[in-house]
């Protein structure tokens, strides 16, 4: 009673799945990537985060799904709050309460939705009013892929070339309802290894050691241009073919990293094979697979092709759960100020 209550704000954000992967940073401090990337922000999954700056606190407190978090994940949150405190000339410690409606660190990009929601909630609670572009730049400092989760639908993260990162930001390329027939069938693979190393570190060993990395960097701009056109024109065959080509390029530079990075299980590989078989049988791309630095696999297809494709996918052993996900909204404030 009578105590000074700090400002508080709540944000929600969804994870995203990259069709063109971010993999390699030219500046680890500012999280400036070597290549631009392109993703779909996913509906259905979300992180909800409330931040309140409270003068009575002596240290930042972070809970995830109700449990207090210590160690590296908390350190990452504290470092992020420090940036927001610097920007807003504040010094109060914060209470951060976060929850995911999907498994954390499971390869479903919880760091993307987590830092997009944290960036929105922390900056609003601190009284900052960043533009969406500036919010994507702030979120990027927590996790590169979080810059894209600030926006809904189809999103490009432009690498830029400036040393200060001013031209490095995410921007929407098409809204979540742009392509209603397009869906992402997500396989939650059983016994997927829990992610222990952040991608931001793993990708740097690829940069340092994969002999295919330079060629990959040369190929990515063409793929982004093709995908942008395919999304604009709702050209599914080009979208599927380019998405597979890019995922194979990503996996190949991981496999040629020293020591090799292998994120897939036998089940994941069976899903990739099933999508290839479906495309071979149809004589044209009717679906695409993609995966991030984890074992779960995203299968993109159109509503009209799903039932035939499911006959192949549903008989693959080792999938805990299949979920159909559509493009979803970007980071947004929920509830009023408290
Ligand atoms: C393979 O930006 O999520 O998902 O926060 O360190 O985990 P960490 O890095 P993050 O790396 C994403 C890598 C990727 C590709 C992508 O999402 O573009």
Care to describe what's here?
With 338 residues, the protein is α+β, with helices and mostly antiparallel strands. Helix content is 38%, strand content 24%. It has nine helices and 16 strands. The protein has a six-stranded mixed sheet. A four-stranded antiparallel sheet has the order 2-5-10-11. It has a four-stranded antiparallel sheet with strand order 13-14-12-15. The protein binds ligand DP6. Residues 18, 21-23, 37, 111-112, 143-145, 198-200, 292-293 line the site of ligand DP6.
The low-confidence runs, each spanning 5 or more residues with pLDDT under 50, are: 1-5
List cofactors, ions and other ligands.
Answer: ligand DP6
Widest beta sheet: strand line-up = 8-7-9-6-1-16
Give the end-to-end Cα distance, rounded to a whole number of Å: 16 Å
Helix proportion: 25-40%
Q: Into which percentage range does the β-strand content fall?
A: 15-25%
Give the biggest beta sheet: 6 strands, mixed
Topology of this structure?
Layout: E1 8-13, E2 16-20, E3 25-27, E4 32-33, E5 37-41, E6 47-54, E7 61-64, E8 67-68, H1 72-88, E9 93-100, H2 110-125, H3 132-142, H4 146-149, E10 154-158, E11 169-174, E12 182-189, H5 199-209, H6 213-233, H7 236-255, H8 266-282, E13 287-290, E14 297-302, H9 303-313, E15 319-325, E16 332-334
Parallel strand pairs: 7-9
Antiparallel strand pairs: 1-6, 1-16, 2-5, 3-4, 5-10, 6-9, 7-8, 10-11, 12-14, 12-15, 13-14
Helix pairs in contact: 1-2, 2-3, 6-7
This protein binds ligand DP6.
């Amino acid at each position: 009673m009578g105590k000074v209550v700090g400002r508080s704000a709540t944000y929600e954000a969804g994870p995203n799945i990259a069709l063109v992967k971010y993999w390699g940073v030219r500046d680890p401090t500012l999280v400036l990537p070597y290549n631009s990337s392109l993703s779909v922000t996913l509906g259905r999954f979300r992180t909800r985060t409330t931040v309140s700056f409270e003068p009575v606190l002596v240290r930042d407190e972070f809970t995830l799904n109700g449990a207090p978090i210590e160690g590296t994940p908390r350190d990452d949150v504290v470092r992020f709050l420090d940036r927001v405190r610097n920007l807003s000339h504040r010094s109060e410690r914060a209470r951060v309460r976060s929850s995911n409606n999907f498994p954390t660190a499971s390869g479903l990009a919880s760091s993307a939705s987590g830092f997009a929601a944290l960036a929105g909630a922390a900056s609003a609670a601190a009284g900052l009013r960043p533009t969406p572009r500036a919010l994507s730049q702030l979120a990027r400092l927590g996790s590169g892929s979080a810059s894209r989760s600030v926006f809904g639908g189809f999103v490009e993260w432009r690498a830029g070339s400036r040393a200060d990162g001013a031209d490095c930001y995410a921007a929407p390329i098409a809204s979540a309802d742009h392509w209603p027939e397009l869906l992402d069938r997500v396989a939650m693979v059983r016994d997927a290894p829990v992610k222990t190393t952040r991608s931001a570190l793993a990708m740097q060993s690829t940069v340092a050691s994969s002999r295919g990395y330079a060629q990959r960097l040369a190929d990515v701009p063409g793929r982004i241009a093709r995908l942008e056109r395919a999304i604009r024109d709702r050209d599914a065959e080009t979208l599927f073919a380019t998405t597979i080509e890019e995922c194979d390029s990503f996996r190949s530079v991981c496999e040629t990293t020293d020591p090799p990075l292998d994120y897939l299980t036998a089940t994941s590989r069976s899903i990739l094979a099933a999508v290839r078989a479906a495309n071979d049988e149809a004589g044209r791309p009717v679906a695409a697979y993609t995966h991030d630095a984890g074992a779960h696999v995203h299968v993109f297809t159109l509503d009209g092709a799903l039932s035939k494709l499911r006959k192949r996918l549903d008989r693959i052993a080792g999938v805990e759960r299949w979920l159909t996900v559509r493009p979803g909204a970007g980071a947004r404030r929920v509830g009023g100020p408290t």
